[in-house]
Amino acid sequence: MDRHSTNSPGRCLAVLLAAGALLWTIWQVPGWYRLGTTDAAGLAMLMRLWQQPLLVALLLAAANAVVLYRATLPLALPDAPATLLDRPRHQADFVFWLCVVFHLGTLLFLLLLGAGWLHLNPLA
Question: Which residues cross the membrane (predicted)?
């Protein structure tokens, strides 16, 4: 595989979208469970287990690490500096700033969660 193909904006955008889709899917599991059952105690147990702050923080940190190493850094630090002059970088710049927004958004979410200003209860 050509090493320069890993720096393509499309591949980096796919990594960012996959991380976002995985986080959204994980967040939706208790809601999907609620649709298929009437067991309130089981749902409460799932909520306590599935959306505990430490687990959410670990998932967000892992997603940030994957996006950082597979999307943000390859766009910010290309393999060869001369490649910055080869083609218009509008797409690469756009995807890079989307990655930055992802990092800042998850950092803000973690700060609000850690400060106690945000409570994890999407079913309420």
Answer: 12-33, 53-73, 94-118
Give 105's contacts (C-beta < 8 A, 6+ positions apart). Answer: none
pLDDT digits (tens, 9 = 90+) for 49-88: 877 888 889 999 999 999 999 999 988 887 666 665 666 6
Q: What dihedral angle (degrees, nearest 10) is formed by the CA atoms of 14, 18, 24, 27?
A: -160
The DSSP line for the chain is: --GGGGG-HHHHHHHHHHHHHHHHHHHHHHHHHHHH---HHHHHHHHHHHT-HHHHHHHHHHHHHHHIIIIIHHHHS-SSGGGGGTS--HHHHHHHHHHHHHHHHHHHHHHHHHHTSS---TT-
pTM of the model: 0.80
